[in-house]
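Researcher: I'd like a structural prediction for the single chain below. Treat it as a standalone chain; there are no partners to consider.
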Amino acid sequence: MKFSGIVLNGGQSSRMGVDKGSMTVSGRPLIDISISALRQSKAEEIIVVGGGSLESEFDDIEQIGDLYPGEGPLGGVITALSVIEHDFAVILSNDLLHLDPSTILKMVSTLNEGNLVLPVTNGTRQVLCGVWRRDLLPILIEGFADGKRSIQSALDPIDVTEIFDIDPIKFQNANTPSDIIDYIATIAGNSKKGMDV
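Model: Treating it as a single chain, here is the predicted structure.
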């Protein structure tokens, strides 16, 4: 199945204290985790919505402005679905620490005839890591016009396919400095295990 890949790169990072879209973690741009997962899962196109200018290593990635800057993630999803070339888009946040291509491919393979696939961890839908059908655009625009700004608030009229069997660590976000510290410690621990083998 051909699909577009989207990374939402907007939003304020008050808990982090810096703009996550420009953060570097262990020498790697934080946003590269989502971009690399999309590349490796063979997304036909990759588009970054919002945020400041990307690093030169992302010259092959298209970046567009958010149609509704400062209005929350729902505006970013609407922006994305209005420009994609394919019927489906994997839409991700820019701060997923452990996402991998196998997770993306599992979500894509679950879509079938549905309109939206979202993983669920600990009873919570992971709305910033899902597969969206372009046909949802009119419903989302209507919700936005009615004053809805969060993605969760716009889902009521949508038939959502939920996935429960993916490791919750795949959807961990970098929300605070302590999340970054834990991530670096995990990487260091994994590297040490590799050397001990």
